[in-house]
Amino acid sequence: MYLSRVRLHDNISGTQLPLLLKDRQGYGLHRLFWDLFSEGQGDKKRRDFLFREEIASEQLGQAGRRKGMPIYYVLSKQIPMKDSPLFEVETKVYQPSLSVGERVGFKLRVNAVVSREGKRHDIVMDEQRSWLREQLNEMGVTTEGAKNVLKNRLLDRSGDAQLALWVKLIESGRYADELTQSLGRTEILDWTIKTLIEKRIQKWWISKGERLGFEVPMDDSGEPLIDAVSYRKHALPEKALSAGFNSLDLSGEVVISNVEQFKKSLFDGVGPSKAFGCGLMMIRRL
Prior knowledge:
The chain is of the alpha+beta class. The chain folds into 2 domains: 2-93, no CATH class; 103-285, 2-Layer Sandwich (Alpha-Beta Plaits). Helix content is 33%, strand content 26%. It contains 8 helices and 11 strands. It has helices at 16-20, 28-34, 56-60, 123-138, 147-157, 160-171, 185-212, 259-268; strands at 2-8, 49-55, 70-76, 87-93, 103-110, 113-116, 119-122, 214-215, 226-235, 244-256, 281-285. Strands 5, 8, 9, 10 and 11 form a 5-stranded antiparallel beta sheet that branches. A 4-stranded antiparallel beta sheet has the order 2-3-1-4. A hairpin with a 2-residue loop joins strand 6 and strand 7. Helix 4 packs parallel to helix 5 and helix 6 crosses helix 7.
């Protein structure tokens, strides 16, 4: 395997950049990276690669780089071409030496989903809708409607007993400090949902580890060492008007339990939407 750091050449002008990256939320970047592996064979040769986008100035600390310029990490089975007209490419062989019990830090942009009845469901939205409907169903109230409709309906029907249960849920998670300030009913509900989402992501990641060759260690307070930020929706209008996917940026630590399974997760990627910049797990020794 080869790990490459890929940047647009400095001579790409400000007027060219938007044209090159106009599809960076869809298949555009994947198509651009194809050219690094084409070897003059057009689209006939299979390209096996994962990629992740970062901001160059944050990664390299180079003030001279144009503000907000992207940098890409590309993991591939083929070595990329060096003389690309678009990209500056730095490549090294990637065959990490790992051992059972080793603890590593990681970063991962992932499309976190659960599959039911042959359909994929984003776990963040699934957790919110499932819990809201469960709460309303227990009250004997209709569960039809969009998420915001369900939230407002739950707020209208909930009494002090429900609020007390929500506060206990918040106390059981990493947002407990929010309760040190005076919170209104809507804020309590919002922090409850955030706590439930956090716990769902943690549970999902621990379950992933069982299949991908790692365990998730705990911090001093007993919480899994994983942070989830930057929950974003990505539109894919070229597939369909309403098509898209959601991504999360995960970071934290894992303990390797099965070297071969863990390497497979590194090389093959984690989760779906790999053609859109998801799935590449970047690791570092601690």
